[in-house]
Amino acid sequence: MNDYILQIILAIIALLGSVLTATWLPYLQTKLAKNKLTELKFWVKLAVGAAEQTFTKEEQGTMKKKFVVDFLKGKGIDISEDELDIIIEACVRELNLAADKIDDYGI
User: Fold this and answer.
1) Which residue ranges make up each domain of the chain?
2) Is the pLDDT assigned to residue 93 strictly greater than 80?
3) Which of 2, 41, 52, 96 has the smallest set of CB atoms within 10 Å of its CB?
4) Overall pTM > 0.90
5) Quick one: how many helices (H) and strands (E) in the chain?
């Protein structure tokens, strides 16, 4: 009788472990990915802002991008060139939209 109860308890523990792994593991992976993306966006925005202040001439786009890439590599952030281009462009757009709003208010 005790062996049956022990087997049932072990089966329940195994079932709970499977259920928790199936539900919590994807959730944790998603949460970690979101945190990583949030951190990446923070550093890219910071680097883009610094590049915009450092290189003020229009034709210095290549130098700005190199500055951002070098900064991110210095932080240990390693992503593909295509992903980085997309995030940089999004950050530049946000920066330009913010600048346009400031201009609209005459600040």
Assistant:
1) 2-104
2) yes
3) 2
4) no
5) 3, 0
